[in-house]
Amino acid sequence: MHFYELKIKTNLKAPIHFRKSPEALSKLIATALINSGYTEHNEKKPKNYIFSNMGRADEKGIYQGDKVFYFRTFKEDLAQKIAKSLFLYEDNIFKIKGVDFKVVPQKHIKEIFTQNPVFVVMKENGLFWTFEKSGDITTLLSALQDNLIRKYETTFNKKIKPENNFIEYLQIKNQKPQTFTYKGAKFFGYKLEIKPRDDEESQKLAFTALATGLGHKNSSVGGGFCVYKTLS
């Protein structure tokens, strides 16, 4: 297994708040895909890509000047089309200055830290999982696992049947949910620290989380974008 990662360097032509920048980045990526002729973007199935925010904002939560963000996917053709389409791209917010292309092979994952909040939409009521509305950690763990299984199986066209939840240890880093805005709506989520299990199936799901994001809203606002530590 391996995924493709783009390191995208941009100059911001206008300041933007970190809660609003994911929607702007999502529109940038969608525009690049449309311009490249990538038709799968319009199909009603998991997009199976993820992007980061632009690092640490200033004390007022604002991004400005030169910044970097990352894009990941299992699909080489998608990564190639994004890279080519973004080369020398410019609009009223972003002026792309460079794109670095990298292939990331699977290694044993020791820890995962979510850089963007993890958003989980509950099937029963369509609401985001929160301590206030649910507080049931078991429900959160199951939702994260089920989502990753679906992403793995649709990407590789293979079944995966882990014996246990892939998460051995989980810590929720913020008591109150963080919010991102998208098309006038607020998304509520949490930053997580995760230690995945060591078995083969769990490691495959953990690697899938790196490539496609944890939870939902990955391609819309970069929900669940992860950084990680490996054993080597």
- The number of helices is 5
Strand content: 25-35%
The helical percent reads 25-40%
- Quaternary organization: single chain
CATH class of the largest domain: Alpha Beta
**CA(first)-CA(last) distance:** 16 Å
- Show unreliable segments: none
The number of distinct β-strands equals 10
Radius of gyration: 17 Å
Whole-number mean pLDDT: 91
Explained architecture:
GO terms for molecular function: hydrolase activity, acting on ester bonds; RNA binding. It holds the Pfam family Cas_Cas6_C. Helices cover 28% and strands 32% of the residues. The strands form three sheets. The chain has a four-stranded antiparallel beta sheet with strand order 2-3-1-4, with helices on both faces. The chain has a four-stranded antiparallel beta sheet with strand order 6-9-5-10, covered by helices on one side. Strands 7-8 form a two-stranded antiparallel sheet. The model has no long low-confidence stretch (mean pLDDT 91). The chain has five helices and ten strands.
Could you outline the blueprint of secondary structure elements for this entry?
Elements: E1 2-17, H1 21-36, E2 49-51, E3 62-73, H2 76-86, E4 94-105, E5 109-114, H3 137-156, E6 167-172, E7 178-182, E8 185-189, E9 192-196, H4 200-212, H5 218-221, E10 226-230
Antiparallel strand pairs: 1-3, 1-4, 2-3, 5-9, 5-10, 6-9, 7-8
Helix pairs in contact: 1-2, 3-4
Characteristic terms for this protein:
alpha+beta; 10 strands; hydrolase activity, acting on ester bonds; 2 domains; Alpha-Beta Plaits; Cas_Cas6_C; CRISPR-assoc_prot_Cas6; 232 residues; CRISPR-associated endoribonuclease Cas6; antiviral defense
